[in-house]
Amino acid sequence: MRIFIGIKIDAPPEVSQIKCELGHAHSKWVKESNYHLTLVFIGQAKTADKVKISQALHKIVPQHAPFVISLKGAGSFQKRRSSGVLWLGVEDSTALKALHNEVNNAVLHIFPNLKNQYKDYTPHITVARIKDREELSAFKQRLNELNVSRRQRVDEVFLYESLSTPNGVEYKVLERFNLK
């Protein structure tokens, strides 16, 4: 199974507005029900590994108090010369960093060969994968013009399974963990 640890995010209406305004000939938009903030991406894992992760999360997550994150701004990651990822930014949060660091360290303890991909953690919410570089730039600019700015309370962390289906990727909640 392909798994990751994340936080569910409510979809800002501005993203739907951009899809309607600018079209989406060269883009693949993330389903609003799939919006999330990844804490740690694990990838392929066995059932026994999932159990170890679950046990670690049951110890870690309740030690953290609920907190608020703020979505602000937009950005992109260029994956190749002609494609990239459009994302919404998350303002710097001490509580989010502390939770991420502790979860990340636990995962690296369980998977010592897993590359530490989060030395420079950039919290973000992926909203689209866009094949055309100019379209990516236009979408990013328009998203920034709309000035997405919203706050969301975080009181749960989720262990997700990423499933490829004929209708696209689906994220199945395997388990939820409540902050104290």
TrEMBL record:
<dbReference type="InterPro" id="IPR004175">
    <property type="entry name" value="RNA_CPDase"/>
</dbReference>
<dbReference type="GO" id="GO:0016874">
    <property type="term" value="F:ligase activity"/>
</dbReference>
<comment type="function">
    <text>Hydrolyzes RNA 2',3'-cyclic phosphodiester to an RNA 2'-phosphomonoester.</text>
</comment>
<dbReference type="InterPro" id="IPR009097">
    <property type="entry name" value="Cyclic_Pdiesterase"/>
</dbReference>
<feature type="active site" description="Proton acceptor">
    <location>
        <position position="124"/>
    </location>
</feature>
<feature type="short sequence motif" description="HXTX 2">
    <location>
        <begin position="124"/>
        <end position="127"/>
    </location>
</feature>
<protein>
    <recommendedName>
        <fullName>RNA 2',3'-cyclic phosphodiesterase</fullName>
        <ecNumber>3.1.4.58</ecNumber>
    </recommendedName>
</protein>
<keyword id="KW-0378">Hydrolase</keyword>
<comment type="similarity">
    <text>Belongs to the 2H phosphoesterase superfamily. ThpR family.</text>
</comment>
<dbReference type="Pfam" id="PF13563">
    <property type="entry name" value="2_5_RNA_ligase2"/>
</dbReference>
<feature type="active site" description="Proton donor">
    <location>
        <position position="36"/>
    </location>
</feature>
<feature type="short sequence motif" description="HXTX 1">
    <location>
        <begin position="36"/>
        <end position="39"/>
    </location>
</feature>
<keyword id="KW-0436">Ligase</keyword>
<dbReference type="GO" id="GO:0008664">
    <property type="term" value="F:RNA 2',3'-cyclic 3'-phosphodiesterase activity"/>
</dbReference>
<dbReference type="GO" id="GO:0004113">
    <property type="term" value="F:2',3'-cyclic-nucleotide 3'-phosphodiesterase activity"/>
</dbReference>
